[in-house]
Design a protein that fits this description.
With 335 residues, this protein is α/β, with parallel strands linked by helices. The protein has one domain: Rossmann fold (3-Layer(aba) Sandwich). An eight-stranded mixed beta sheet has the order 1-2-4-3-5-6-7-8, with helices on both faces. Helix 10 links the parallel strand 7 and strand 8. Helix 4 packs across helix 8. The longest helix is centred in the last third of the chain and has 22 residues. The protein starts with 19 loop residues before the first strand and ends with a helix.
Length: 335
């Protein structure tokens, strides 16, 4: 494996002042941020971002919670191996996350925060270990196949289908990560934030993950990750009793409102907030509003679903009937 070009974080260190932690993952360095103490919040990023995307959330929540933001292999400050050394597939991402959480040996239930690819990765873990999950916070992502009649945008399709020019554009010119800086936000990004988001992908070797994530999007049964997405898709209902907060940027050319509607169809009890002036990087466009919503969500008592509410109402009604029976004269008459 070729040695990665190092990532210089000094230009944006003021935005990302966190201590780096690493776990050995079969000889690869798996980077994560681990700030604060208390109930753990696990933040899972997508493509082409990294833990830097969650910097404002880590800063805001770490005084009250243990905030852990991972960098997938090939992303952020984690190692960026070649394809012979690491299998850049969804299954690997999920296994890596599970290995890290086992390594951290967290005793408390987890709150998951997921965005983009983090959605399917985090939900796959949650389906496997629902008893470990306390809450889930969802931002512009999917954990199911595209809604009916929804096609993959042509610019992603070209990359997935390994168009020679697209491959050169992603690996040679970093066009995927650079275009995200312009297309994934509605309000635009400050120079130092752009620098932070793009920093890890500073050479051809360090851009493999940005290409492989797109190529791993499963659209047909022949795609390697299709069966895994199908499994998650079919088992999402197992998470219906877990409190969920959905924060959604409406200005998203990939995860548009049809994806939000699908989340709402599957989880009608979820708390939902949409942002008209935000794009795919919703946490970049509306950090302050989302932080307020997340803090409020975390402070709430566990949400009662409609199903549980109906069951509780039935039990309460039965208890009232029993109490009324005891207070009545009927027991004496029966004697």
């Amino acid at each position: 494996m070729k040695k990665n070009r190092s990532v210089d974080i000094s230009p944006f260190r003021h935005l990302y002042p966190f201590k780096s932690h690493y776990m050995d993952l079969d000889g690869l360095k798996y980077h994560f941020v681990d700030e604060g103490s208390g109930d753990p919040i696990i933040m899972i990023h997508g493509n082409p971002t990294w833990s830097f995307y969650y910097r404002n959330l880590v800063t805001a929540l770490s005084p009250q919670f243990r905030t852990i933001a991972v960098d997938h292999i090939g992303c952020g400050l984690s190692d960026k191996p070649d394809t012979k050394t690491y299998d850049y597939r969804l299954k690997s991402r999920i296994n890596n996350l599970e290995t890290l959480l086992d390594y951290l040996d967290l005793k408390e239930k987890l709150t998951l925060v997921v965005h983009d690819w983090g959605g399917i990765i985090g939900m796959a873990y949650a389906i496997k270990y629902p008893e470990r999950i306390k809450r889930i916070i969802i931002m512009n992502t999917a954990a199911f196949f595209p809604p009916k009649n929804k096609k993959l945008p042509i610019r992603l399709r070209l990359i997935k289908d390994v168009c020679p020019f697209a491959r050169l554009a992603v690996l040679g010119f970093n066009l995927f990560a650079y275009s995200a800086l312009l297309m994934a936000t509605k309000k635009g990004l400050p120079k130092d934030v752009k620098s932070g988001l793009i920093a890890p992908y500073n050479c051809r070797q360090n851009r493999i993950a940005t290409l492989k994530f797109v190529q791993d999007i499963p659209l047909s049964k022949n795609d390697p990750s299709y069966s895994l997405v199908k499994h998650v898709d079919k088992n999402l209902h197992k998470l219906s009793n877990i409190p969920m907060l959905i924060c959604w940027g409406k200005y998203d050319f990939v995860f548009d409102l049809s994806y939000l509607a699908e989340w709402q169809r599957r989880f009608p009890d979820a708390e939902v907030h949409t942002f008209s002036d935000a794009g795919h990087y919703v946490l970049e466009d509306e950090p302050n509003k989302i932080i307020v919503l997340i803090k409020s969500f975390l402070e709430k008592r566990p949400h009662i679903t409609n199903k549980e509410r109906g069951r509780n109402n039935f039990h309460n009604y039965a208890s009232h009937l029993q109490a009324a029976f005891v207070r009545s004269q009927i027991p004496k008459i029966l004697k």
